[in-house]
Amino acid sequence: MKTILSVCLFLLLATSAVAAGIEGAWTTKMSGPDGNQMELTFVFKMAGEKLTGVVQTQNGDTPLSNCKVEGKTFSFDVSFNDMVIKHSCVLKEDDTISMKIVDSPMGNSEMILKRKK
Fold this sequence. Notes:
Blueprint: H1 2-22, E1 24-31, E2 37-47, E3 50-57, E4 60-70, E5 73-80, E6 83-91, E7 96-102, E8 109-115
Antiparallel strand pairs: 1-2, 1-8, 2-3, 3-4, 4-5, 5-6, 6-7, 7-8
């Protein structure tokens, strides 16, 4: 019984440590509708196992919704202009986040987020 409890405690702490690695400000650049590069900053916050945050753009902050975290994989939605944009992410070993935008009205895309210094 002690062994099972120890394993469960270890897995809980390991998952929390990975989730804490997500926390912080992350930047990327993407092409806007006019073709110009624009910088996006994703600010992720962890409260226990719960992920919250915002995406910061030149037009202001937009909150994340429908956030889910499973180890190094996490997802969330961003809503603006009556559109919901789904994001699927993986925290990588090199301290980057691989992000895929899926089923977006503007099409699918991929980005690499780097930790803001």
